[in-house]
Amino acid sequence: MRAGEPTGSSPRPQSLSGSFIRSGAGGSMRRRERQVRNMRSAAVVGLTVVGMVGGIAGARLERGVADDGPNEAAVASSSETVVSTYETPSGSARPVGSELIARTRSEDGSPVCGLGRAFHEGRRAALLAELGDEVFVIRGLDEPRDYLKFYQDKNFWYLTGIDSPGAALVLDGRTDEEFLFLPRHDPFKEQWDGEIWDVDDAWVGELTGFEDRRPREELESFLAERLAERPPVRIVRTPWVALAGGTDMASPHERRQAADPFDGRPSREKRLEEELESRYGVECADASRLLAKLRIVKEPEEIEAMRRAARVGSAAIAEAIRCTAPERGEWELEALMSFMHERYGAAGPAYSAICASGPNNNVLHYFHSSRRMHAGELLLVDYGPDVDHYTTDITRTWPVSGKFDERQRKLYDIVLEAQQAGIAAAKPGNGMGDVGAAIQAVFERHGVQGMVRHAPTHYIGLEVHDVGVRGPFRPGMTLAIEPGLYDDENGFGIRIEDVVLITDDGCEILTREGLPVDAEGIEALAAEAGLLDR
Description:
The chain has helices at 25-39, 71-74, 117-131, 154-160, 187-193, 203-208, 219-226, 247-259, 268-280, 288-295, 300-323, 330-343, 406-425, 432-445, 519-526; strands at residues 81-82, 135-139, 168-172, 177-182, 213-215, 233-235, 284-286, 348-349, 354-357, 378-383, 385-387, 390-391, 394-399, 457-459, 478-481, 484-487, 492-495, 498-502, 507-509. It is α+β, with helices and mostly antiparallel strands. It folds into 2 domains: 46-80 and 299-533, Creatine Amidinohydrolase, CATH 3.90.230.10; 117-295, 3-Layer(aba) Sandwich (Creatine Amidinohydrolase, Chain A, domain 1). The protein starts with 24 loop residues before the first helix and ends in an 8-residue tail after the last helix.
């Protein structure tokens, strides 16, 4: 990330009194042209009833899969399966809809157990089957400081479906028993923070399937008894931090913190390991790989959640393309996309928005969103929501003025060709290396490999950079494919990213419903009026 403000940046306006109105003849003319075109259509959607793309309000995934059936069947019902080619969706209609897309938010505010009791019970059973004679201990996150929004540890949520602070879980592989620990009821605290799942809530057992529920303060004495024979213990060593993007980003932060001579704090996970070993004389091993083996192949409920996240994320970026114009601020489009996410029930962003115009295209993790866009530049947006605890990761690059120039278009088409090659290689039996090699071959053929700065693919799921294990792709795996070229000489960069689901004979692209990827489709979408133009 660059230090200080990027070239051409300007401070955010302090007043709403005309500060966000675009200036300059180019922006005003483009806005008037859009308004004239759209006056011919009666499809005017008010800000209070935002339409979504591609039938998002009513789409459903038909399963027809037995509860214990293989994941291969779960992914068979794909609307766009890619083996060696892909098709660009036609049209960018925005039917009006007001449905709450997220499923882990109830319409009446009543408690919800994640993706459903059966899903989380199944995940615990799968982990118990891997434990053998080991005991697994994991703590959910505690409430945050300073009135911040609570985010649950992803592994804890995966196993329990509980999105409330102060919980803990113990699984005993020797007896196949599971124990849930929750805080005691605190009426005074609930007056301030709302309902918190507690051990006195009778509905918790029915909702989650936990028959043995105990007060959290009994965890220490419980472990003293349960670990008296010193069985091997599994804990999760890799930390999870909200909005970190994944444990691959959170873990280095924790290591730097521990190595800092003026800090030295171990991670929360490391501290748990130290306490278990010193208090109870047990030896701890990491369960991260066991959980990664479970998480890497998605269950039907997870695939549906990722479809929902993809639809919401695609709709938000499509709206940003419509609303892009010279002299508009990067922050305006970030705010617009965040509104679109939460309008349909997203818990928030899956990661901090990258909304990078002009020279900021070439800053891979540019999070400032502090610059005004100018005619002739490109805007690179990399942003996705967290819907039902699952993420999506979408990147599009488009011209601020609505049309690519010759140099921009040439590089854009190369990146798109490379992504198409990578998507064609994403199929069972291949692996990450095959996708990367296919992309690299395109770049080498065009002589642009010197503009490459990052790996072109990663797993995705509960986290943006999700856990994974080495080996060939299998149906039910999900990954993001994101080739990019960064032209320092001409001051711009291009990245295109989509999420794909591995199917029986190829892959399905999840993130193109109503969101074009070809240059012509991008330009056509940019010509439409957006919410900020009305």
